Amino acid sequence: MSAAVDWELAPTPGRMPSRIARPQLRLVLPGERAVKPAQLATRISRRGRLVITLTVVAAALTLGVLLATSVMASAPQIDHATTVSAGQTLSEVAAAQLPGLPINEGVARIQFANGLNTSQVHAGQSLLIPAMP
Questions:
Q1: Which of 10, 40, 44, 96 has the fewest Cβ atoms within 10 Å of its own Cβ atom?
Q2: CA Rg value for the chain
Q3: Residue 108 near residue 76 (C-beta atoms within 8 A)
Q4: Where is 28: in which H helix or E strand?
């Protein structure tokens, strides 16, 4: 006679049903073949699920940031620079330097090219003028 492992996974009476039964030895008669145990399903612990979740979220955020930065508007092409004269407003600069555009669009493009938050300029200030579209 020989001994082999019996992989019976059904809980036996008197044991806690939440625990997996340990393999038991069983006798194998001569001429009988030992059966290979069934593969157990992979179980992931709570920490493992957390790591997988955080990895997926980090990958999604990284992809989102990469897509957002690639879609952003590129910097405007600068044609030349000009200096603001005394008493001159940004609207007057836009009308003189970008005559093919409406004044409000010219002002917006000059503000964007120079990183200005307001339309206030002062005498002697140098402004970058974007190229015409």
A1: 10
A2: 38
A3: no
A4: strand 24-28
The pTM of the full predicted model, rounded to 2 decimals, is 0.46
Whether 88 contacts 123, CB under 8 Å: yes
The candidate with the shortest Cα–Cα distance to 60, out of 68, 49, 70, is: 68
Under CATH, what is the fold of the domain 78-130? Membrane-bound Lytic Murein Transglycosylase D; Chain A (3.10.350)
Q: Which residue has the tokens 């069983």?
A: 26
Contact between 38 and 21 under an 8 Å Cβ cutoff? The reply is: no
Are 109 and 93 a contacting pair, CB within 8 Å?
no
pLDDT digits (tens, 9 = 90+) for 1-20: 555 555 555 555 555 556 66
CB 7 within 8 A of CB 23: yes
The tokens describing 74, both together, are: 């590129």
Give me the residue spans of the domains in the chain. Answer: 1-34, 78-130
pLDDT over 80 (residue 24): no
